[in-house]
Amino acid sequence: MLTLSLTNNRAVTLFLIFSVLLTPKLHATVTASSLAIVGYDDSRDSFSFMALDTLAAGEVIYFTNNGWSSSQGRFNGADESQGAGNESLIKLTLNQSVTTGSVISSSDTNSAWTWTNSGLVPGQTDGFGVFSNLALQYESDQIYAFQGLSDNPLLNPTHFIYALHMGSAYYPGFSDSEDELTGDVPPGLSEAAKTAFAHTNFSFHGDADGNHSAWGLNMSSSEIQQLQVLGGSKSDWLNAIANSNNWGPIITSLDAAPEPAKTMLLLLGTIALSSKRRRQS
Predict the structure, then answer these.
(1) pTM attached to this predicted model
(2) C-alpha distances in angstroms, 169 versus 32, 77, 164, 202, 253?
(3) Domain extent listing, the chain
(4) 19: how many CB neighbours lie within 10 A of its CB?
(5) Residue 262 to residue 5: CA distance in whole angstroms
(6) CB under 8 Å to 174, separation ≥6 — which residues?
(7) Contact 25/97 with Cβ under 8 angstroms?
(8) Burial tier of 34 (Cβ tally within 10 Å: 0-12, 13-18, 19+)
């Protein structure tokens, strides 16, 4: 896991850690903008997110690629007998506090958190409602972070945290969900507030021909590097993350490809070392 320090008035120092802090924190409610999706691999069905607030132990966060239907007021396909909707649902339980700036991949294992990607969704009685890794569509899809009731959370979301749309020229932005490729901005989130983000650069996305992609936040982009040097508020980071120019392909070949968070870990490690050398010089 990696940690990114977010401040308003002092320079940001990137540093690498291998476990979250064990010091207990005061419980804080997870709200819209408490995290942002910063990496995605539609071949390995994995994603990464950055904590933009400290996330307290005991929090449960769900992620789904079922599109939001504004006309129906629910996730596409979610009902009492289909707890995972028409696509996928995965659950994250925080066993320990996760500090602001931490980046977690859905493929990571750690004592600080537990990913539930198998077994029946509570409230379900058959095999149609099971947890799983997000089976991401390569041409267009969405990733939603939300909290909900423990029974049938997909049908009973209590509030939304973040939404990412990754599409193509045929599916350029959020829209009312009609199928597995489409999804709208859910209540409480907005593109204006940067809590919902639709990519505008499609050159490195997957496409209808079955070409996959793995991409994420480019830590060497000028805007991200400026935030690293000068510091930045949560709003600054949301703006930077919701800028397609600050993203890029993580890999050029899917053979032995690393997961998004691990690739960013290496990038951040390099930046951290160079920052340390500059301070010592």
Answers:
(1) 0.80
(2) 28, 25, 16, 7, 23
(3) 2-280
(4) 10
(5) 18
(6) 142, 163, 165, 183, 184, 185, 191, 196, 198
(7) yes
(8) buried
Element (H, E) at 14: strand 14-16
The single-letter code of the amino acid at 33 is S
Please say if the pLDDT value at position 226 is more than 80.
yes
Tokens of 80: 């009492």
Which helix or strand (DSSP H or E) is residue 163 part of?
strand 157-166
Residue pair 103/264 in contact (Cβ under 8 Å)? The answer is: yes
CA neighbours within 13 Å on the CB side: how many for 51? 24
Rounded Cα–Cα distance for residues 41 and 43 (Å): 6
- From CA 253, how far away is CA 51, in angstroms rounded? 29
pLDDT digits (tens, 9 = 90+) for 111-132: 999 999 999 999 998 767 999 9
User: Which is nearest to 48 in space by CA: 101, 112, 6?
Assistant: 101
